Amino acid sequence: MMQSLHPNSNSKFTPLMMANAKAILSLLQGCNSMRKLHKIHAHILINGYQHNPSISEKLLNFCAVSVSGSLAYAQLVFHRIHNPQTPAWNSMIRGFSQSLSPLQLQAIVFYNHMLSASHAWPDTYTFSFLLKACEEAKEEGKCREVHGFIIRFGYDQDVVVCTNLIRSYAGNGLIETAHKVFEEMPARDLVSWNSMISCYCHAGLHEEALKMYDQMRISNVGFDGFTLVSLLSSCAHVGALHMGVQMHRFACERRLVENIFVGNALIDMYAKCGSLASALSIFNSMPKRDVFTWNSMIVGYGVHGRGDEAITFFGRMLMAGVRPNSITFLGLLCGCSHQGLVKEGVQYFHMMSSEFNLKPGIKHYGCMVDLFGRAGKLKEALEVIRSSPSQHDPVLWRTLLGSCKIHRNVEIGEMAMRNLVQLGSLGAGDCVLLSGIYAEAKDLQGVARMRKLIQSRGIKTTPGWSWIEVGDQVHRFVVDDKSHPDSREIYRKLEEVIHRASLVGYAMEESSLVAAPESNTQEYCWETSTSYHSEKLAIAYGLARTPEGTSLLIVKNLRVCRDCHNFTKFVSKAFDREIIVRDRVRFHHFRGGHCSCKDFW
DNA sequence: CTAGGGTTAG
Fold first, then answer.
1. What proportions of chain A, in percent to the nearest 5, are helix, strand and coil?
2. CATH number for the domain including A424?
3. Which of A279, A318, A333, A567 has the fewest C-beta atoms under 10 angstroms from its C-beta?
4. Is the pLDDT score of A76 beyond 80?
5. What would the pLDDT profile of A413-460 be if each residue is shown by its tens digit?
6. What are residue A546's phi and psi, to 5 degrees?
């Protein structure tokens, strides 16, 4: 009788017409689309369950939180609840916290409403969701304010709430505050440790991240795949191969190498630490591969200047049915430019948009400038900048300036310089580059002008550093560093190294005209002959502290200067060592007096 | 069955 009153009486939900609350609940549980939800909602109304708290909460939760839900619908449902309790508020706050910006601010609005206009009290869940919203919406002030409430409610004793606090602070750039919360929380579990490490990793504080691991071991919480992935990423960034190998061993022991996240992180670590062969062997052993897997290999080959192999892997990637993204093309273009594969680079640049519907970004244009510039086609490089949508980006002009240095082009170099001045982003490195161009053209006045420019404008400089990992320690050096505990020994060793390198042909460039990219202070800027660049110190230390025949890996934040590049070539010959230098932009493999970049960088 | 953690580029 009742069935005939209902228009949907033929639908498969018909039996529910007489269903009890329990049946409706279980149907809500299995709901996976708004279409089904509308039907279930109709049944709820017909059966008079709209005021049943557990049903309306479940309904609300689905709309607000599920990927196939609808926040707009959730709001309608919410406003029909007479006296919403904490779980209902939580659903709304959670829903908005995971929505697109700037909608996340609505999570905070709901929370404020909850405090002022309802009888429901926030609980630990409320704060977890709310902190997530503060993190996503970059609401630093609100984050601090919420922290105050958390303390007043006594929820600062809760691990999950504290972990959310850490992420929220770190996401707002307050990494030290985040660490303070971490230190002061009553107990730390595995997730809290992993969060703290990943926050450091994201903030670029890789040495801090790696240090956390030592403390983590003492605290006996163990580790898992999440731990390894963040740590491996930090190892990759700082070039800590030995530590990375140790992580690899842990991964094997715990059967975590089969985890795709761990495998991808291992590939990246080995590639960034100069060991492409190991990266490849991980790649070959992976049971499943995704876009990260392929990109890590392609980018790895790219930064090592092996464009042909990057291209080969790109082809295999397509064959495997994995869709490339913009990072894939960055790796490809980088490889092409460093290997001088101009034709191929151009082809892939066009392929991005024509075949994969990917819009080239500023970095892709940067690669194109580099591709032409490095190959000596400076006019074409200039044309790329002119035709790019981001012709007012200093990065492009800076890249062009670098190419002018390689090809000793004063005219276009000066043009690049003028644009950098106009864009108000002239850096010391730019002056040093142009000065180098003048020096090679024997234009002493030009060199003097650059020197004056730096001094008169008080141009901000990037301090240069190099680091080398010896044993389980990362050692960091700056120009003329005397802060290392073994400083005296290092300088003695360096004198010996220079002597032995000179026996096989090395001659230090005495000319004060040789401007060094590492020069970070005015004193050292023009006096190469009296200063020791950080990588020389790192190399000396590495030679002194590692067994004969082992290869050295140096990581530095700036480009290698010509003298150091030359020096390293002769050292590799004199000491019969492989020396790998990871530059700001690429890898140099020195062996037997030659470099893999073929003096082209 | 209301909560917190992961990789490539920059």
1. 65, 5, 30
2. 1.25.40
3. A318
4. yes
5. 999 999 998 988 888 888 888 888 898 888 889 888 888 888 777 777
6. -125, 150
**Nearest nucleotide relative to A331: CA against C1':** B9
Whether residues A475 and A589 fall in one domain: yes
Nucleotide in closest CA–C1' contact with A229: B6
Cβ contact A167 with chain B strand, < 7 A:
yes
Q: What is the dihedral of CA A272, A269, A203, A134, to 10 degrees?
A: 130
* CA of residue A36 to C1' of nucleotide B6, angstroms: 34
- Judgement on whether residues A475 and A583 belong to the same structural domain of the protein: yes
Which nucleotide is closest, CA of A193 to its C1'? B5
Secondary structure of residue A570 in the 3-state scheme: helix
pLDDT in tens, A463-515: 889 999 998 788 999 988 999 999 999 999 999 999 999 999 998 875 444 44
Distance of A55 CA from B2 C1′ (whole Å): 14
Q: How far apart are the C-alpha atoms of A234 and A232, rounded to whole Å?
A: 5
Other beta carbons less than 10 A from residue A401's beta carbon = 26
State residue A525 phi and psi, 5-degree precision.
-55, -40
- How do residues A252-262 score in pLDDT, each as one tens digit? 999 999 999 99
Quick: pLDDT tens for A370-424: 999 999 999 999 999 999 998 889 999 999 998 998 888 989 999 999 999 898 8
**Phi and psi at residue A555, to the nearest 5°:** -115, 130
A479 and A394 in one domain? no
Q: Is A587 found in the same domain as A471?
A: yes
Question: Do both A449 and A514 map to the same domain?
Answer: no
Proximity of residue A94 CB to strand B below 7 A: yes
Q: Is the C-beta atom of A399 closer than 7 angstroms to strand B?
A: no
Asked if strand B contacts A304 at the CB level, meaning under 7 A, the answer is no
pLDDT of A529 strictly over 70: no
CA of A119 to C1' of B4 (A): 27
Answer yes or no: is A428 within a domain. Answer: yes
Answer for A430: CB within 7 Å of strand B: no
